[in-house]
Amino acid sequence: MFSYRHAFHAGSHADILKHLTLVHLLEYLQEKPGALTIVDTHAGAGIYNLEDGFAKVSNESQGGIFRLVQYVESCKKSGTPLASSIEKYAECIHAENADGNLSVYPGSPFILARLLRPQDRLKLFELHPKEIDILRHNIQQLPQAKQIDVYAEDSFARLKGLVPPPSRRGLVLIDPSYEDKQDYRYLEVALEEALQRFATGCYAVWYPILTRRESAALPDRMKKIAAAHQRSWLHTELRVENAPGERRLQASGMFVINPPWTLEKHLADALPVLVEALGLNDGAKFVLNSFEA
Ligand code: SAM
């Protein structure tokens, strides 16, 4: 426990899939003026320096955000239109790198914080003793800091107590490290409890695609939970290569319960572009399916 540091993975293809989806979810939910409560159950450090430290050791951003930004720039130069969700996501990354040099990568807390409207609230959970200090420090620098609560608590245990939010409008990102195999089970329990209390919330779960039994079973387990609560869902995966071994993560997925009706079209436009921009071999592909309850 606690060997996971998200800085190693900041700006990877998995972050791109997760954050691009997240930006669209928030954009849709903010179309209505009512206050939104956003819970990020596994926050990490908030923002990551790509030029040194852990991120530089792993260099996962080279195969992720650096490739995507280059792709976006070449489309702009050639006048090739881009999927709008890629543009919105790229704007979030650009906002943290205003000098044009890609030196930092915003994690989910920063992406969400920057998009808050005055009426919205953001609740961040982080358990790692070092990450929580870095997260608190990073969040204090933001003009939106007063709208954000940071908890050094186990979010799997706390989530049910936070829903439904007072406005009954909420988005929950569940992004565990799955460092502990039990996370798969904790995720299911927390999601079940949250849906019992707040069936209409939008829940977005990220997961790594690994040969590990629990990982392979995750989408079906999520579908069962959604069905038990008569909820719509959307499932998507992005694979950047198909190579032997699991030394580096080759694919990841998102499972969204109560997805906005616009999400599928946005992802259908964005995913082929991500495969083209980030794919490393013929095994690169995406999956996109959904069910309407
Ligand atoms: N959501 C972040 C992003 O997209 O930028 C990345 C989060 S990272 C995948 C998962 C984080 O969850 C780690 O920093 C880990 O320390 C933290 N964590 C692990 N178990 C937790 C728990 N039960 N409650 C809260 N945080 C936890």
- The third-level CATH topology is Rossmann fold
Radius of gyration: 18 Å
**First-residue to last-residue Cα separation:** 38 Å
- Structural class assignment: alpha/beta
Largest sheet: 8 strands, mixed
Mean pLDDT: 96
**CATH class, anyone?**
Alpha Beta
SS strand fraction:
15-25%
The total domain count is: 1
- CATH architectural name: 3-Layer(aba) Sandwich
- In total, the number of strands is 10
**Which oligomeric state applies?**
single chain
Q: State the order of secondary-structure elements, H for helix, E for strand.
A: HEEHHHEHEHEHEHEHEEHE
**CATH superfamily placement:** Vaccinia Virus protein VP39
Would you kindly provide a written description of the structure presented here, covering whatever features stand out?
The chain has 293 residues and is α/β, with parallel strands linked by helices. The chain has one domain: 3-Layer(aba) Sandwich (Rossmann fold). It contains ten helices and ten strands. The strands form two sheets. The protein has an eight-stranded mixed beta sheet with strand order 5-4-1-6-7-9-8-10, sandwiched between helices. The chain has a two-stranded antiparallel sheet with strand order 2-3. α8 links the parallel β6 and β7. α8 packs parallel to α9 (213-228). Bound molecules: S-adenosylmethionine. S-adenosylmethionine is lined by residues 4, 6, 18, 40, 42-44, 107-108, 125-128, 131, 154-156, 175-177.
